[in-house]
Specification:
12 helices; 38% strand; Thrombin, subunit H; 439 residues; alpha+beta; Pdz3 Domain
Amino acid sequence: MCAAATALAAAPTEVADVRRDATVLAIERVLPTVVNIATTRIVEYRDPYQDLFYQFYGRRAPVERREEPSSIGSGVIIDEEGYILTNFHVLRRASRVYVKLQDGRVLEAEPLVYTPHKDVALLKVRAPEGERFPAIVFAEEDDLILGETVIALGNPYGLGTSASRGILSSKARRPPVEGEPLGTQDWLQTDAGINPGNSGGPLINLRGELIGINVAVYREAQGMGVGFAIPVKQINEALSEFFSPEVTAALWFGAKVKGLRPPLTVVSVQSGSPAARAGLREGWEIEGVDGRPVRGLVELNRRLTAATDRPVTLELRDGTTRRTARVQLISFEDLIRQKLGLRLLHPTPQVAASFQVNPGEGLYIESVEPGSPAARVRMPAGSLLVGLDDQAVGSLYQVADVLMRKESGDPVILTLVVPRRLGAAYVEYRQVRMEARVR
């Protein structure tokens, strides 16, 4: 045998590590995007000495407030700017929220918006300006194979990040019902281990793509190996609502856009909205704003809401046809003034107490525009608006949400708490209903 052949035979051959299969690679790809979540809540603590303090000094001692652990859970980073998706029930009653990243850092996060009926909530990490985070990739909505291998990641029982493998046991068993809370019939089912604390963590396929958010597990007495996850389709619908000018900046745009990453597709347009007046149509794709391409739903929302005092130009694609449209977003204050002629304010705690309601249970009518729909039905300034079309209102968004769906001339029922002075020191508060027609 020649020397070269001998050397070649003696050289070690590189053998792939059989342990690094598709499951391992998917976990390695996704793990940097998974976070552990801990919440705290402020509780009031009263001790017996406070009553004694009152007896001697005629006033109560300040109530002591303590921060106590509230819940643990999981989440997943969905955008490089630090937006995190989790379950609403993980954050319920939380006063503060902390997330632990895979690099060991613990950062505070701000809850932004949630949808209880889908049990989905959005957070944003409070991080140094310009910091970027690894983000998970979403699977196609209907790209699910019954029996395919899936992996659940999360923080079970607060033990730290862990992974478990199983199969996709069942897809959603019924079409979604508008406005109804989601349940086991609407979720993905898996035998991958999902335990308390896993809530909010990602359920992924072997490509490392998000197919669901872990949400629940049957109790041991009810069934073993039966876990559930919110499907990516429901998550995308929630994100279309979360990342909208209406939710993030109190601006009326009037089009719902779907697609965390391009293509960004217009899925609905409200009649009479700024988007409708600009000519947007369902099915069109938004490719850019003011001559610059947009990389996703988060950036689109940021660029739309940055232009509050001028129209923005949208670059659109309709099949093979390229179009442009100029859209002027409208603030909720202007929308309410245009539709009803009211100027509404959030009442201070003192004003709310004078109306015998809690803060957030109504809006103070500061003024009524002469000749407006509100003026025509003699709606009194200085009253408290507490309902619209029999829906309780406590924010401008709730009022605007009703008015955005009204055409000119449509009726709207307003429920008010109206003060009426009886004598020098007594005020009676009456609840009245009025019908006005929006303009």
